[in-house]
Amino acid sequence: MSFSKSKSKSKSKSKPKSKSKSSSDEEDLKNWGILISKSRNIEDFLITTNTIKIGRNKSSHFQITKSSKISGTHCIIHRENPETINKNSKQKKVALAFLEDTSTNGTFVNGVLVGKGNIRELNYSDEITFVSAIEPHTKLPPVILYFRYLNYIDKISKNFIKEKFTVVEELGKGEYGTVSLVLDKKDNDLYALKYTNTEKFQKNFKSKKYCIQRSFNEVNSLIKFEHDNIIKLYEVFMVEEKYLYLKLEYVKGGNLLERIKSKRCYPEDEAKIVIKQILDVLLYMHEKGFVHRDIKPENVLMVSSSDTDIKLTDFGFSRAFSKKEPMYTKLGTENYVAPEIITERGYTNACDLWSTGVVLFEMLLGYLPFSKEIRTDMSVWKQIILCDLEFTSIDNNKISPQAKDLIQKLIEKNPLKRLTAKQALNHPWITEKK
Ligand SMILES: Nc1ncnc2c1ncn2[C@@H]1O[C@H](COP(=O)(O)OP(=O)(O)OP(=O)(O)O)[C@@H](O)[C@H]1O
Ligand SMILES: [Mg+2]
């Protein structure tokens, strides 16, 4: 059970802590799990050894001192030897991790107390809470960690997909696969099953290794995120080393592009709520050292019939990045792509802010700033490189000066002058109450 790991070696500040000192590719393979912290003041922890102790003690592998209720050794995570399990079991899916509760105050998994001396299986994305409620005397919130497997995937047969899911309808179709609404027969719940044919990648890209790696970009990014506005990844299946299936959280409101089309354009107070959520996600991702690279309305999903509750999806172009090492791969979606990606002189995570500016423009004015329709005499890429952002007199009547100011500071040619996610979140158009 392993999948090709991402080639990208993030050197960002927010790289998770680990006892392992080496950062070589081989050492990376030893990272079999990760504990993602909900709180920003506790860093994520990469699990490399078969047993890790978590608690206040200095000798803990993962030392947490943020709460007085945390025991010296609060809990232990054990890894079963996969070889032993495979020999003894013919099961399709095996749990490789177990949590042992060693604390009097208790460790909770998905809100359920494990209990001192008890051991329970840990599944992908389980939530581990160290103190059940806010500590009354200190008003400290509980310490919450999310467990994820790394280098982990279920290899299954094609029939197994049919046995496991009932396809309800197609939700979307891309160049390399489809997204379907499915019913999981096990829990009778609805999910979005995203299917990618990695062989189709191979027709468009050079090496097989690169194609496989590209197909896993989405998994490698999504498994490291826990955010209310990012679509959740539940399971990953690989069939015949070719077909990749991601079982994702399903949201029923369609995508933002459909919503813009049906509304013609968004009122500013509603657009503000949507853009703020996108910026929140970008701040979260960028701080973790990840870039999205395909921000556009089709990739912003609507949670319900509400025009403002969103979740970001399609992390197929996402990857870890380092501010010191610019990216060069030319990708994205024509109308939303930043000029520095087109000119191929190296780009950073600032490209996501450009695309967010384009989305904001489109939401408020109902058309794209750079498109074939706007200027028939010039290619879209040329328009983007020129960055000649024009607001007609009708536009100026339609939007407030504050909104226009934010758009201009996001659709800014120079990525060094462009607002960051944090700066954009502090822009008066976003922060002002009315
Ligand atoms: N989790 C989901 N819940 C509901 N609808 C979804 C979900 N994921 C995707 N969709 C629908 O399917 C469409 C395509 O999904 P997605 O953007 O993930 O794939 P894609 O565009 O085919 O990928 P790519 O752009 O890499 O080719 C979305 O625009 C949306 O309408
Ligand atoms: Mg998409």
Automatic annotation (TrEMBL):
Origin species, per record, is Anaeramoeba flamelloides
Cross-link Glycyl lysine isopeptide (Lys-Gly) (interchain with G-Cter in SUMO2): which residues? 296
Q: Which PROSITE patterns match?
A: FHA_DOMAIN, PROTEIN_KINASE_ATP, PROTEIN_KINASE_DOM, PROTEIN_KINASE_ST
Keyword terms: ATP-binding, Kinase, Nucleotide-binding, Serine/threonine-protein kinase, Transferase
Which residues does UniProt mark as catalytic?
Answer: 294
Which Pfam families does the record associate with it? FHA (PF00498), Pkinase (PF00069)
Record GO terms (molecular function) = ATP binding; protein serine/threonine kinase activity
- The FHA domain covers 52-114
Keyword Kinase set for record: yes
Domain spans labelled Protein kinase: 165-430
Q: What is the lineage of its organism?
A: Eukaryota, Metamonada, Anaeramoebidae, Anaeramoeba
Residue sites binding ATP per the record: 194, 298-299, 314
What name does UniProt use for this protein? Serine/threonine-protein kinase fhke-related
Listed CDD domains: STKc_CAMK (cd05117)
The residue ranges flagged as biased composition, category Basic residues, are: 1-20
Q: Where is this region: Disordered?
A: 1-27
